[in-house]
Amino acid sequence: MVLPEEMNMTQKFETLGLIKPILEAIAITGYTTPTEVQAQAVPEALAGRDLLVSSQTGSGKTAAFMLPALQALSEPAKVAGRGVRVLVLTPTRELAMQVTKATETYGRNLKRIKTVSIVGGMPYPVQNRLLKAGADILVATPGRLLDQMQSGRVDLSRLEMLVLDEADRMLDMGFKDDLEAIVAQTPAERQTLLFSATIDNNIARLATGMLKNPVRIDVSGQAAKHENIEQRLHFADDMAHKNRLLDHLLRDVDMQQAIVFTSTKRAADDLANDLHAQGFAAGALHGDMKQSARTRTLAMLRKGGIQVLVATDVAARGIDVQGISHVINYDLPRQAEDYVHRIGRTGRAGRNGIAISLANVREQFTVRSIERFTSQAIPVSVIPGLEPKQRVFDKKPGTAMKKFGGGNGGGTKRPHSSSPGFGARRDGGAGVGAGAGTGVGTRAGGPSGGYANASKKAGTGVANWSKPAGAFAGKFAGKSDAKREGGQERGEARGWSGKPAEARGEKKTFAPRPAQRRAAA
């Protein structure tokens, strides 16, 4: 694969080789400087090269492939007749709509270029009429396109450019066979542009069979790390606490519009209804909605009619609304990669954004996997009056997560611990040491390396033990009341029989075990 030379990121669109009608359309949008992926991909695509591009969401990749595609359509077709000349495949309906809108925006000054979108959820009769009228650019999801191809309504014999947008997501959704079936019906001499958030082995194998000596473009930086997005993490004790946190966040005066992500379609509907009942202009967006309802919801979001959109991951990669100031993960994503695409819905077009995740005590490893995937720590935030009562992570507000443990009855055992009531170390701040309340103490490990520092709240029948220098010191509680220091026994001990016993002297003595005490009684 060929690596492109470094681009001068101060260049303008005029230096990319685009024709005047496209430049004028770009100027209307207000953009003057291409993003990194646009600066690298557009000249190579205009030169007719295949591209394998790794670029995160929000990096401007739609224009990176659509601008050269439109310029190719401004020239006469290589093959006479009717049929699709540019095919763009996307994983979701929302992303297809976004690409279609971008095509219309950048191609407004080009004559006789028709764009058609074919996605699932649209009535077949409507799509059939659109396809019969002809299309130069076809934007489609793989499943519905394959249906139409098998019905003989789509002809790809004139195809000049194939674009796979977010190919990694299409593979995740199980479209591999559909993609291969579609590509098999396209001309071998086509130009292919493959865009993906990540380039793993699956994408590399897919690219090997579809691309010819592609230019490899790997874009990282602000868009990949989301440096313009402030990330926060809030702990929630339970659902009631999580709902109070959400209510507080949505009433923030700085919140313009927000997308709240849930893990299921039903949860999206239920939460949207609850928020609407509380006075928020809320709506839901998920895969079970009809295409007309989804289109109407997104239109209301763009016009400001919806302030809070509750959505599932189906919408994570397809919403491009610049007014989104906040993204809230009401439910954490199942895959760490989806976290990146979710929070990428804010901070669009160079703006700043805020991404807030609500995590409960059982999602410690999910948070950790997200931080590993992004190579970024998510700072913990606490809202005064809504502080969590449970502590799961060994991290203070505003710091990164380091260890897990602690809490009531949890933690990690040291090597010589065998009982849940003795020798358990607590990494969390709450419930550590004396006063653990659930019978689980702390183990600090004395210099002798033996059983050391098992502690429990007085009055529960289990003693405070420590072994700071190979000796026992502490106060037995409950049924026994003895004080030992440096191997010497002093004071009064009450055995299991309840009879007092006196013991003073210099000899080293130890209190009998419970079984011994019972036998003595």
Q: Percent range for helical residues?
A: 25-40%
How would you describe the shape? globular
Helix count equals 16
What is the straight-line distance between the termini?
Answer: 84 Å
**Main sheet summary:** 7 strands, parallel
Strand count: 20
Structural class comes to alpha/beta
By oligomeric state, this entry counts as single chain
Radius of gyration: 32 Å
Descriptive report:
The chain has helices at residues 20-29, 36-46, 61-73, 93-106, 124-133, 142-150, 167-172, 176-183, 201-210, 222-225, 239-250, 265-277, 291-303, 336-343, 364-374, 514-520; strands at 51-54, 86-89, 115-118, 137-140, 161-164, 191-196, 215-218, 229-236, 257-261, 282-285, 308-311, 324-329, 353-360, 412-413, 424-425, 474-475, 483-485, 488-490, 492-494, 500-502. By secondary structure, the protein is an alpha/beta fold. The strands form five sheets. Strands 3-4-2-5-6-1-7 form a seven-stranded parallel beta sheet, with helices on both faces. Residues 1-9 and 401-521 have low confidence and may be disordered.
